[in-house]
Amino acid sequence: MRIIRYEAGGTVQWGVLDPDGGIRAADGDPFAEGLRPGATVGAGARLRAPATPSKIVCVGRNYADHAAEFGNPVPKEPLIFLKPPSSIAGPDDEIVYPSLSGRLDPEAELVVVIGRRGRRVRAEDAMSLVYGYTIGNDVTARDLQKSDPQWTRGKGFDTFCPLGPWVDTDFDPTDVRVTCTVNNEVRQDGRTRDFLFDIPTLIAYVSAFSTLEPGDLIMTGTPPGVRPVRPGDTITVAVEGLGELTNPVVAEPT
């Protein structure tokens, strides 16, 4: 099932995507009793980010080649940081290039959506927490990330976490291609089989220090090929078999 959030008539709510691409309204909570698909939604509905997490947990340098391209060592254990929920954007939303930064990089990522509460979960039990998967873009103000002792500002601007277009509850992430295309040019290209730390390991590591709640997100890291973008560019992050997430880049209004 592909779970969505959509906006129609000024209201944002959960829904389900039909196989033909149509949107159906849905009642219920996807992380509790589940969603009950209802009537088909008419034209004019707009997809929004398919998540309302309490936290967005990100993994740095989870591909060896990405670590190498910035001259960084391969981590011995997962390198964890957070993005604020206020950074979330949806499909086709604008990514705002902040005036404080001189370099903006997209980072294509597979995103794990947590479906039930978990604390100190063992790796062998970790997949029982997974509700599904979506696509994310860990937009980064690279110059600020490098200048600050912590990454919060460089990773946390509003619009720096596009997500979508849906959550797929029946997706196999074991070995799929992850790409970032800018203006139809493929820049990043990798496969999830090259993760340094697989998804069960990440869930176990994170839940050892922080309780994972339904709806929380784990961004699994980005493949090599990271290069900057400018206002006017269009970014598409794709995960094989899952879909595509496209967002334009615009300059911050003066």
Question: What can you tell me about this protein's structure?
Answer:
The chain is mainly β and 254 residues long. It has four helices and 19 strands. It has helices at 64-69, 142-147, 152-156, 199-207, and strands spanning 2-8, 11-17, 23-29, 34-40, 46-48, 56-60, 79-83, 88-89, 95-97, 104-105, 108-114, 130-137, 140-141, 161-168, 177-182, 185-191, 217-219, 234-239, 243-251. The strands form three sheets. Strands 1, 2, 3, 4, 5, 6, 7, 8, 11, 12, 14 and 17 form a twelve-stranded mixed beta sheet that branches. A hairpin with a 3-residue loop joins strand 18 and strand 19. The longest helix is centred in the C-terminal third of the chain and has 9 residues, at 199-207. The radius of gyration is 17 Å and the shape is globular.
Features:
single chain, 254 residues, mainly beta, 12-stranded mixed β-sheet, 5-stranded mixed β-sheet, 4 helices, 10% helix, globular
Topology:
Elements: E1 2-8, E2 11-17, E3 23-29, E4 34-40, E5 46-48, E6 56-60, H1 64-69, E7 79-83, E8 88-89, E9 95-97, E10 104-105, E11 108-114, E12 130-137, E13 140-141, H2 142-147, H3 152-156, E14 161-168, E15 177-182, E16 185-191, H4 199-207, E17 217-219, E18 234-239, E19 243-251
Parallel strand pairs: 6-17, 8-14, 9-19
Antiparallel strand pairs: 1-2, 1-5, 1-14, 2-3, 3-4, 6-7, 10-13, 11-12, 11-17, 12-14, 15-16, 15-18, 18-19
